[in-house]
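Postdoc handover notes: sequence design on the structure in folder B. Input tokens:
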């Protein structure tokens, strides 16, 4: 499993934060019985940058917490499946952690599992899809100890 990180903020990301992300990604893939060797890219951005990306790729001119861009295909250098890119607003993650009254790392874990499930093809456009996806999120977060 290869993790490619790009921090485009002025904030420092701790080793514990990276550790949570990697545990959540690995547990999500295990939960989903994903057996391929994989590569995933995770970029940390500001609210301003994620707003621009949301506007550019989803035609929604507002800040969001995380965006997922599935790729597919294989990296010819490593033979790993390129799952895709996750773009996460650290500003928004901190805001939401405060709003929901939980730790920043718990929010980071939630946004990561949510994004990986999107990369694997899940969505929450309608109520049935939302129930399936959110049940998976909860189970995975329990497995990594971020919720009870």
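Designed sequence:
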């Amino acid at each position: 499993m290869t993790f490619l990180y790009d921090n485009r903020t002025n904030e420092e990301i701790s080793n514990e934060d990276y550790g949570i992300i990697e545990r959540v990604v690995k547990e999500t893939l295990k939960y989903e019985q994903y057996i391929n060797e994989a590569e995933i890219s995770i970029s940390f951005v500001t609210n301003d940058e994620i707003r621009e990306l949301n506007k550019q790729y989803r035609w929604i001119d507002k800040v969001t917490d995380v965006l997922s861009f599935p790729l597919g295909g294989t990296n010819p250098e490593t033979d790993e499946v390129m799952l895709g890119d996750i773009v996460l607003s650290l500003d928004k993650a901190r805001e939401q952690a405060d709003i929901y009254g939980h730790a920043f790392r718990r929010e980071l874990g939630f946004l990561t599992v949510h994004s990986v499930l999107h990369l694997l093809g899940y969505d929450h456009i309608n109520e049935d899809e939302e129930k399936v996806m959110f049940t998976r999120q909860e189970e995975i977060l329990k497995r990594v100890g971020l919720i009870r």
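Context for whoever picks this up: The two ends are 27 Å apart (CA to CA). Don't rerun without checking with the PI first.
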